[in-house]
Amino acid sequence: MNKRKERPLLFLDVDGPLLPFGDGPQRETSCTATDAHLTRLDPRIGPRLAALPCELVWATTWEKEANTDIAPRLGLPPLPVVHWPETSDAHEGEDQWFGLHWKTRTLVAWADGRPFVWVDDEITDADRDWVSTHHPTPTLLHRNAASRGLTNEDFAALDQWLRATSDSPR
Q1: What is the DSSP track for 93-148?
Q2: Pairwise CA distance, residues 122 & 100, whole Å
Q3: What angle do CA 151, 157, 160 make, to 5 degrees?
Q4: Who has greater pLDDT, 128 or 85?
Q5: Share of the chain above pLDDT 70, in %
Q6: How many angstroms separate the CA atoms of 37 and 132, rounded?
Q7: What does the pLDDT read at residue 98?
Q8: What is the mean pLDDT of residues 26-48?
């Protein structure tokens, strides 16, 4: 297995982590009204994400549009994308019972035993408990404040965990 495949995955949501919902500083815009919300993207985040010792993966309902609408604005290359399958009735009922986020099972399956970080503003303790029981390698389910997006503190926590977990020297 090569070093790239051994690196932990970082599953990245868009709405909340990259597009904050708060009243933070607004950037000057030269875009159309249809993509005005994208002005909330901080272009400084792209290089910070790229510098983390992991493989970035879109884990968002934006799916392939994350590569066409988000990645270029952040200076990121196209990233792998998690596609969300239909949930079975049995899993949907179990997920509701345990209070799992609808992404949880799919991300564990997608990781296929690799260590991973999941960055999202909707993660709960139920997700953390389920993942720790159903995934054999280290994980970090990192919830950020949707009102602020990713902060310096978030990046410090991600970097520290990834460096402690990663097999690749940096």
Answers
A1: HHHHHHT--TTHHHHHHHHTT--EEEEESS--HHHHHHHHHH-SS-EEEEE--TTT
A2: 10
A3: 135
A4: 128
A5: 82
A6: 35
A7: 73
A8: 70
Question: Which residues, listed in sequence order, are joined to residue 158 by a DSSP beta bridge?
Answer: none
Q: What's the token pair of residue 110? A: 């997608």
Q: DSSP strand E in 45-84: where?
A: 55-58
Six token digits for residue 59: 């884990």
pLDDT at 73: 95
| Residue type, position 104, single letter | T
Q: Compute φ and ψ for 120, nearest 5 degrees.
A: -160, 155
Name the token pair of 120. Answer: 């999202």
- Residue position matching structure tokens 């990259």: 18
Radius of gyration of the chain (CA): 16
Handedness of CA 66, 69, 73, 75 (dihedral sign): positive
Task: Retrieve residue 146's tokens.
Answer: 């949707």
